[in-house]
């Protein structure tokens, strides 16, 4: 695909206001709006919610534009800046990602384009691609660099980690290093045998794998009973199925297909004790699947907020193509387990493999200062990124799931990863790593907290 930045108008560095107050300096940046500043920020920080005016198509900067949301935790302009993204919506509350804590830095967290409200109206969905999103980040970096002139590190988990990789590929000079957590690399969507192999071998308990297979088989065997429960659940909670799946039966099958993936993505080996036997009651099966996979997600209300994700998966990012051999004769919808199934018909599109092949080749041969962290029991790690040998590293946290982070690594690797990050960030000595009690941090681990729980399939 090449470096396709041709035609993008450079961002003119904003003159920094003479005021020493960071709010005044932010307001002086052209295109940036200070939406609000928290009156009760976390200790040691100021917390801002901001927007930045972006072209919908960066090749046509004079055309349609939209406001992209992001948040800022400001500590000091002489500290490093962490560029964080979930790859989805902007988190609502103040939080510090693991790299921010490790370098004691500032942090921005940017909402991915086309996630509401960072969506143009009307929206041309062809402008939702990895280069356009990377260029969003590039313009924000250029706009803020005159104020935050120290080292920059980008980071994110899962789709956020992928987003950080893509930004680094197209604009390698924007940041001084990348920490990508649990980032999938589905470089050839049709060659997904690594995922089937993962489910054949994951964990330390073959009986656990067999019982998860059994849960899926029993749910589909008892389809009529399970559907009655699903319909009652949908009626009670106001779920509809008209806009995406068109039928509650099809949504039901998707939930069941997702069950083993969801279990290993978010559970641990010890949770195998909760997996029902094939002889369990229908109520027990329904409750387990709902707790693990979530019947509400595949309703219109659950899935439509993530249309931007599934559109990217369908067109560029790819998705795990599992065989489900253990369910032969029980499924009704061939080819259901793909990204287009989770999109309204008007947004469905053909997949183009070239962008991911380009990204994979660049990471393998030309990348530098990149740190990848994976979880041993996380299905998304079945197809990992493999960086070049230029000051880049890949570590796997033993027994960890999709919440793997540097802290979960074995001590020698944890220390090596921390040292690399601090070196890239220009932090010479250890800094305070403890999690401040006054920072709002959701329950899930670290960077994964802001990723929607049920986004499991496509990347």
From TrEMBL:
InterPro entries: AB_hydrolase_fold, Peptidase_S37. Keywords: Aminopeptidase, Hydrolase, Protease, Signal. The keyword Manganese does not apply. The keyword Transmembrane does not apply. Gene3D superfamilies: alpha/beta hydrolase. One of its GO terms (molecular function) is aminopeptidase activity. This is Aminopeptidase.
């Amino acid at each position: 695909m090449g470096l396709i930045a041709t035609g993008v108008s450079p961002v003119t560095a904003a003159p920094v206001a003479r005021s020493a107050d960071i709010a005044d300096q932010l307001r002086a940046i052209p295109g940036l709006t200070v939406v609000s500043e928290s009156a009760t920020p976390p200790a040691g920080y100021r917390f801002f919610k901001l927007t930045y005016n972006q072209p919908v198509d960066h090749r046509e900067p004079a055309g349609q534009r939209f406001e992209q949301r992001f948040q800022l935790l400001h500590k000091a302009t002489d500290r490093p800046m962490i560029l964080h993204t979930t790859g989805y919506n902007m988190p609502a509350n103040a939080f510090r990602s693991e790299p921010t804590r490790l370098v004691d830095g500032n942090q921005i967290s940017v909402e991915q384009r086309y996630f509401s409200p960072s969506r143009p109206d009307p929206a041309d969905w062809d402008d939702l691609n990895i280069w356009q999103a990377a260029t969003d980040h590039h313009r924000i970096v250029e706009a803020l660099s005159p104020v935050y002139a120290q080292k920059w590190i980008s980071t994110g988990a899962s789709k956020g980690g992928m987003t950080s990789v893509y930004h680094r590929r197209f604009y390698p000079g924007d940041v001084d290093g990348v920490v990508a957590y649990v980032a999938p690399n589905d470089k050839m969507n049709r060659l997904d045998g690594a995922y089937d192999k993962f489910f054949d071998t994951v964990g330390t308990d073959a009986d656990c794998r067999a019982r998860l297979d059994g849960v899926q088989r029993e749910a589909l065997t008892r389809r009529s009973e399970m559907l009655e429960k699903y319909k009652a659940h949908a009626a009670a909670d106001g779920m509809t199925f008209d806009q995406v799946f068109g039928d509650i039966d099809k949504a039901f099958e998707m939930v069941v297909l997702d069950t083993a993936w969801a279990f290993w993505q978010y559970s641990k080996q010890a949770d195998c004790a909760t997996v029902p036997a094939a002889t369990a009651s229908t109520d027990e099966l329904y409750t387990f699947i709902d707790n693990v996979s979530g019947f509400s997600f595949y309703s219109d209300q659950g899935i439509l907020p993530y249309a931007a994700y599934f559109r990217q998966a369908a067109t560029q990012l790819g998705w795990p193509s599992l065989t489900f051999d253990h369910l032969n004769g029980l499924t009704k919808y061939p080819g259901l387990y793909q990204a287009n199934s989770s999109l309204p018909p008007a947004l469905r599109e053909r997949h183009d493999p070239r962008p991911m092949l380009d990204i994979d080749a660049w990471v393998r041969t030309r990348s530098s200062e990149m740190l990848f962290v994976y979880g041993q029991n996380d299905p998304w790690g079945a197809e990992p990124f493999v960086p070049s040998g230029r000051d880049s590293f890949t570590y796997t946290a033993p027994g960890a799931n999709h919440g793997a982070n540097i802290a979960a690594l074995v001590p020698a690797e944890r220390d090596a990863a921390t040292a690399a990050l601090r070196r890239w960030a220009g932090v010479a000595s250890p800094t305070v790593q403890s999690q401040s009690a006054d920072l709002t941090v959701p329950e899930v681990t670290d960077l994964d907290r802001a990723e929607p729980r049920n986004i499991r399939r496509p990347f």
